[in-house]
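Entry 12.
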Amino acid sequence: MRFADILKMCFDSLSRRKGRTILTVLGVFIGCTSIIVMVSIGAGMQESYDQMLKNMGDLSIIEVYRGYNQNTGTQTESKLDEKAVESFHEIAGVKAVMPKASLDDYNISFKAGINGRYTANWVDFAGIDSSALEDMGFELMDGRYPESSDEVVVGQYFAYNFFDTLMPDGRNYVDRYVWDENGNIDTENVPDPFFDPLKTSITMVLKPYNNGTGTEPTPYEVELKVVGVLKEDRGKGYETSSGVMMDINALKSLLKDLTGKTDTKFEYSSINVKAESLDAVADVEQSIKDLGYSTYSMQSMRDELNKQTRQIELMLGGLGAISLLVAAIGITNTMIMSISERTKEIGIMKALGCYVRDIRAMFLMEAGSIGLLGGVLGLLFSFIISVGINLFSFGAFSGGGVTWELIKQALIGGENVTRVSVIKPELIIFALVFSVLVGLVSGYQPANKAVKISALEAIRNE
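Predicted 3D structure (tokens):
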């Protein structure tokens, strides 16, 4: 038999018992829809996590700290010094390395403007290798990168730390958080701070917490030359938000002036390592751990979250698969009934010399067609449900209204758009293939039963 003949007989048989075919397809439709919607919700959770981590910072940055022995509760012999920086540079997949140091023994405050009119009592501070800023992926909001060790950069919201000493309470502070009528942060209408850090004189005031004499320590003032404002990126450090970054060599010189001695064994508080790509993060991080250091990265957090979402997707998909299992039983029952009704037809086909494989192929095609039709309809309906869920989460049904732009975002997402339900291309392919396979597997036993029917017995019994 030609393939076209088998196909025609398949659809003739399905259309002959429309009611039974529709009910069987409906079972596959419900099962396929259940699986797709359930798994899409798990995928939506993953997209939400990815969006959250993306907003938190660069996923290719690895923060390195001194190793920690969990058995003894003490730090390991691994030190964060120049030797460590050199060893990290030698690791395959590393793009840039930036050591960081802090002034933990000093109270740091700032004053700005004429006669120190504006003051800030607490600001994040770090000494860094300013020559590595660009390679590490730090972005500028304004100004330029430092070109010498006496130049510093500040975080995007650095100026909002300051109070105006000439203004009364309640009016002496600029709040950068503005809320819109829906209770969300308004990023478009942020008020300007009191001053522009690139155009205003800024002084850093350091005072040791304990000078060892029992007397009030004398403050040490340093004039800062601010040349750039960094874009906020929490993954690269809180200093990018509202802090100050000074070149590490300038910090060493400052410590020498403060203490009167040169520390030849200078250690960093942490070291940031940037991988060449997201795919290289895991290997680079493991190589650093093998050297005896502790690490933290957004990518490792992402891997853990992805592991959790995969487990949730499997659980939700398993619940949906129960419906498809019921549909598989329905397909088997339909095919058995179809064969019992067409015993004479099978006998005649055998008597006319039809190949056994053609008879088997005909029944398998019927079962596979039921699975495919149910899968396609289930997929289309799943898209409708997914879009509806996302539109509801966007608030489209609570007065906002449904627009084509919202429907597009609900369907394919967009910049800073977090969907509750996400139907990925691989899920579409899996759903269709799985539906067809369910049909074929369910129809295999009845098809084998059909080819074993004796032609003479079939004609005689009918």
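Annotation: The first helix runs from residue 3 to 16. The chain has 13 helices and 15 strands.
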